[in-house]
Design a protein that fits this description.
Blueprint: H1 3-14, H2 20-27, H3 31-44, E1 47-48, E2 53-54, E3 60-63, E4 67-74, E5 86-93, H4 95-105, E6 110-113, E7 115-117, H5 120-132, E8 140-142, E9 149-154, E10 160-166, H6 175-180, H7 182-186, E11 190-194, H8 199-209, E12 215-219, E13 238-242, H9 243-250, H10 258-267, E14 272-276, E15 282-286, E16 289-293, H11 306-319, H12 324-339, H13 351-356, E17 367-370
Parallel strand pairs: 3-6, 3-11, 4-9, 7-8, 11-12, 12-13, 13-14
Antiparallel strand pairs: 1-2, 4-5, 9-10, 14-15, 15-16, 16-17
């Protein structure tokens, strides 16, 4: 933002009812010049619509998947080609939806932009989000596709054996759809997007990040959907992914070390990387530094949604100005609390629960090293 744009914004903040000529007179500028600055501030997301409504100071807008989750946990080791006795559950999921709900439960202002079918699943999902405190005013509805569904088949220990997804509805999201909610996107402090969105939409978000107010965080969802980034990471401020997704995105040899993957991703243009490496914890890469954080002990009930909780916990602390490494510690704790519940989003999650469990981070010793050595 230029000094004159800042001066115009400060003038509007002091008196939102001031006219353009009044602002121009107070700053010694011509009225057309002020009009130009106002248009630029609106386009960048510092002003929202007419009447000079200022963007909310701290809000995270999540764009991407919202689904109905059906989970089937096997009572014994899964056997192929025959019937397996299971225990079943129904809940709500989708990466962007999970992140939005967890953020709200942690006390952060969150909005969800997604598309639902005009059906009972979609209506139930919307009501649940509203009850959880998520802004749903920008949800889209279509009668051409049903609300997306995700089916997880779990081993007896809660680990995922198979994931089956009906996500065709998300292919209907267009750039025009996001143009229609641009004031909401532009006014965010952080915009989180998952790769359930079509390739052109992901590219559009990266391009619109340039000069915008918000910072952009991205999760690939899977090793298949990460290809929707087309290897182009410029415009992404923070990339969350696992080793399998990183290998697919970089086309690196399977023997490539996690450290080397972080280096490649940074060189491709992303501002920072949070790379999860299973039971070994995660790596945080930013600038020329890389930090390894070991995993936390957990009583595993269901791993579904753990990565989404990591993202939400991390973004919630970044929203409050914490450094990335410290924010990731909160994210890891949120992930563990999710693993220890049967739900994709632990409905007990709150900032108070995080604080009561912060002692579990006491033994989390970081290892720091250079990523670009």
């Amino acid at each position: 933002m230029s000094e004159q744009e800042q001066a115009v914004l400060d003038g509007i903040a002091a008196d939102p009812f001031a006219g353009q000529q009044e602002i121009a007179d107070s700053l010694g500028l011509a009225r057309p010049t002020v009009a130009t600055y106002i248009a630029q501030l609106t386009r960048k997301g510092y002003l929202c619509g007419r009447a000079y409504v200022l963007a909310e100071a701290k809000r995270i807008v999540c764009v991407g998947g919202a689904t109905v989750d059906r989970k089937y946990r096997s009572q014994q080791a899964l056997q192929h080609g025959t019937s397996n006795p299971v225990n079943s559950r129904r809940s709500f999921g989708g990466v962007a939806r999970n992140v939005a709900e967890t953020l709200a439960r942690l006390g952060a202002a969150s909005s969800l932009v997604s598309v639902l079918g005009d059906d009972e699943n979609g209506r139930s999902l919307t009501k649940h989000l509203q009850f959880s405190g998520v802004d749903t005013t920008r949800l889209l509805t279509t009668n051409t596709h049903p609300t997306a569904e995700y089916l997880a088949i779990l081993n007896p220990d809660g680990e995922l054996a198979y994931g089956i997804a009906d996500m065709e509805i998300f292919d209907t999201v267009t750039i025009d759809d996001l143009h229609g909610v641009w004031p909401t996107l532009a006014g965010a402090s952080w915009l989180f997007a998952d790769c359930n969105l079509p390739t052109p939409v992901m590219a559009w978000l990266r391009n619109r990040r340039v000069g915008a107010r918000f910072r952009l965080a991205v999760d690939p969802v899977s090793a298949l959907k990460v290809m929707r980034l087309q290897g182009e990471l410029h415009g992404i401020d923070l990339l969350f992914l696992n080793v399998q997704e990183a290998l697919a995105l970089t086309a690196a040899d399977s023997a490539t070390s996690p450290d080397a993957l972080c280096k490649i991703l940074l060189q491709r243009g992303t501002g920072a990387v949070v790379l999860t490496i299973g039971s070994d914890g995660l790596l945080v890469a930013e600038g020329e530094s890389l930090t390894a954080l070991p995993s936390l002990k957990a009583n595993v009930v269901d791993v579904t949604g753990a990565g989404d909780a990591l993202i939400a916990g991390t973004l919630s602390r970044l929203l409050d100005g914490e450094p990335l490494e410290e924010a990731c510690r909160t994210g890891m704790l949120a992930a563990v609390l999710t693993i220890e519940s049967e739900e994709s989003v632990n409905t007990s999650t709150s900032s108070e629960l995080i604080e009561r469990n912060r002692h579990r981070l006491a033994g989390l010793t970081a290892e720091r090293r250079k990523v670009l050595q």
